[in-house]
């Protein structure tokens, strides 16, 4: 049985439903552990309806008092901090859990990810595209030689977190470094686990907004040709979301197809002809490893005419 932890509030219920549906489209025996705060019975029921006969869901109510003095905003709502308590909230008999943000699409089996040995580590995670930017990593107290991981997908060693008091240490770090951190929960986890994380393949947390950035932003030190030849299993919409008109990811159409297939109908924005054309052009270019620069000019020209 694979165990997956999610944190949501009422605003993310529908996106949580899509995530669960995408997981179960390829992985049948899964228990979902949802960290939330007073989620309504209606929302809980709508999530439960996405399950199959071999999957389960458990809801955990998180006390907001844990997050007093923490920075909160529209971009960083209280719910982002729930993941920091996952080892304290989940049953002690659970030794490992896969934490995921809810702006994610699963595109295959995660058995290989679940089988990764993390006995000696706090988490297994994918290195973030921000990792090579040394000043940012150094400013939060991390060793840039070790790197900086994205906390949107983490295979967590729960006993490690419990023994090393990771939850309390991350909360304390955030309160003590409010003026330094840019990504509160992620910066804190990187600081506390800087020497204790295992780097895994990008396919397990492919950051959709940066797909085309690999072409032109040399400071990200990423080679698009190297990563374009594999099949991303977990696509993470870490910037513009599929339900935002500004989202340019080629994967948003897969997201919409899945949401419609599993009965989540209220999150698909009205798309223009340009959006569909862009998808097919970029998808084709992605398969051949072609730079998108000329296509972007072509699409912009169409947009201006319309």
UniProtKB/TrEMBL annotation:
Keyword Lipid metabolism belongs to the record: no
Sorted UniProt keywords: Glycosyltransferase, Metal-binding, Transferase
Source superkingdom: Bacteria
Pfam families: Glyco_transf_8 (PF01501)
MF term (GO), any: glycosyltransferase activity
Protein name per Swiss-Prot or TrEMBL: Glycosyl transferase
């Amino acid at each position: 049985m694979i165990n997956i932890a999610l944190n949501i509030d009422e605003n993310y219920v529908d996106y949580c439903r899509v995530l669960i549906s995408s997981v179960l489209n390829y992985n049948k025996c899964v228990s979902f552990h949802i960290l939330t705060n007073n989620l309504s019975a209606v929302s809980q029921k709508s999530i439960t309806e996405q399950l199959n006969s071999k999957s389960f869901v458990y809801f955990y109510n998180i006390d907001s008092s844990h997050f007093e003095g923490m920075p909160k905003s529209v971009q960083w709502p209280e719910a982002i901090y729930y993941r920091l308590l996952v080892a304290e909230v989940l049953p002690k008999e659970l030794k490992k859990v896969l934490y995921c943000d809810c702006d994610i699409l699963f595109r295959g089996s995660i058995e290989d990810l679940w089988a990764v040995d993390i006995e000696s580590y706090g988490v297994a995670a994918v290195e973030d595209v921000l990792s090579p930017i040394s000043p940012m990593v150094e400013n939060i107290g991390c060793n840039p030689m070790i790197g900086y991981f994205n906390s949107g997908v983490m295979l967590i060693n729960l006993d490690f977190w419990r023994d090393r008091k990771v939850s309390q240490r991350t909360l304390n770090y955030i309160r003590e470094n409010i003026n330094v951190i840019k990504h509160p929960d992620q910066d804190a986890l990187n600081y506390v686990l800087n020497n204790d994380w295992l780097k895994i393949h990008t396919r397990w947390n492919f950051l959709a907004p940066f797909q085309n950035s690999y072409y032109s932003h040399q400071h990200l030190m990423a080679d698009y040709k190297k990563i374009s030849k594999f099949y991303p299993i977990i696509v993470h919409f870490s910037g513009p979301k599929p339900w935002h008109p500004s989202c340019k990811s080629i994967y948003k159409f897969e997201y919409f197809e899945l949401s419609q297939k599993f009965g989540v109908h209220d999150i698909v924005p009205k798309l223009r002809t340009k959006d569909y054309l862009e998808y097919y052009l970029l998808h084709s270019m992605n398969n051949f490893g072609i730079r998108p620069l000329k296509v972007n000019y072509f699409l912009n020209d169409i947009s201006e005419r319309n």
